[in-house]
Amino acid sequence: MIDKITVVGAGNVGATAAQRVAEKELAREVVLIDIAEGIPQGKGLDQWESAPIEGFDTRVTGSNGYEESAGSGIYIVTAGIARKPGMSRDDLLTTNAGIVRQVAENIARVSPNAIIIMVSNPLDVMCYVAMKASGFPRERVIGMAGVLDTGRYRSFLAEAIDVSVEDIQAMVLGGHGDTMVPLISYTTVSGIPITQLIDKERLDAIVDRARNGGAEIVKYLKTGSAYYAPSSGAVQMAEAIVKDKKRILPCAAWLQGEYGMKDLFLGVPCKLGRNGLEQIIEVELTDEEKAALRKSADAVLEPMALV
Ligand SMILES: NC(=O)c1ccc[n+]([C@@H]2O[C@H](COP(=O)([O-])OP(=O)(O)OC[C@H]3O[C@@H](n4cnc5c(N)ncnc54)[C@H](O)[C@@H]3O)[C@@H](O)[C@H]2O)c1
Ligand SMILES: O=C(O)C[C@H](O)C(=O)O
To answer: Architecture of 2-143 per CATH?
Structure first.
């Protein structure tokens, strides 16, 4: 347990993440920050009132300012607008870049040693905006998307072959967009290559569904996007850091030569521990996977040039 974790943005993803952090007792205190007056205070108080029933001692509070969050070890940043049907994540770029820039400056001001877990979309570019605005090193700005994309891929596979989700090991790399790269060569069920358990046609359909998993939820919800699985993804990353677990998770990291690429955030296998991003693991890729990762990088670089 650490002293304080702050969640910026008390909307769907942020409020759910705060509740999950509290229920897991990852910090003594959780601070929810939002610009909407009364919302973080009301949601924070409501969550704290669930503490005696759920049995956690993490104190949850809400605020419209950053002072109360000073000294937080981790900030989960979910501030910004979410897409609606017919929109792409990149349509959120200009609005969310302005929001994330201001959020990151405030974080750096009150908690210069914090680790930022970015969630706001378009994810890979928002990580870049946060790193620039905070001045933090790459070890302390990490994006959540790969855990979610992999969670979708794993859940669809578990359903298709009727096994426990816990026994599916997989990794989805690349940018958080339609060009994400599920690594079939590293997908196993308790060590058994996935290709031995499902035919190519069904596997291709699952890969495609995982790639479009965000849009599938938007189509159902209509007024916004997914938040239960996204908040789980962000909190799994926070837990790996708080407990210094050295977990290997697919996260957006600032590449400096890894995978032959430089100066962009992209989803790659990352070791997370108390220092944040502790290592980027470079796995061998097939020529097809390399080409797909390159294409995914191009899809990140294009909007990145606009901020
Ligand atoms: N990386 C991922 O995999 C992933 C998954 C789900 C959602 N998202 C993204 O996360 C973001 C939030 O999604 P949501 O569903 O929670 O949206 P939401 O609309 O429910 O909540 C967003 C909150 O941000 C707040 N906000 C706006 N400007 C702010 C500012 N300057 N400072 C503090 N708070 C501010 C709003 O008041 C609102 O409460 C979106 O950009 C969405 O696309 C990313
Ligand atoms: O799809 C979205 O806009 C939200 C998020 O990125 C997701 O994948 O659920």
So the answer is: 3-Layer(aba) Sandwich (3.40)
Enter the tokens of residue 300.
Answer: 């990140």
Model pLDDT for residues 27-66, shown as the tens digit of each residue? 999 999 999 999 999 999 999 999 999 999 999 999 999 9
Listed in order, strand segments (DSSP E) in 126-169 are 141-143, 168-169
Residues in binding site:
9-14, 34, 83, 89, 96, 119-121, 152
Give pLDDT tens digits for 158-200.
999 999 999 999 999 999 988 889 999 999 999 999 999 999 9
Instruction: Locate CATH 3.40.50.720 in the chain.
Output: 2-143
Rounded CA-CA distance 113/123 in Å is 22
Kindly list the protein residues whose Cβ atom lies closer than 6 A to any atom of ligand 1. Answer: 8-14, 33-36, 78-83, 92, 96, 99, 102-103, 119-121, 123, 144-145, 148, 176, 224-227, 230
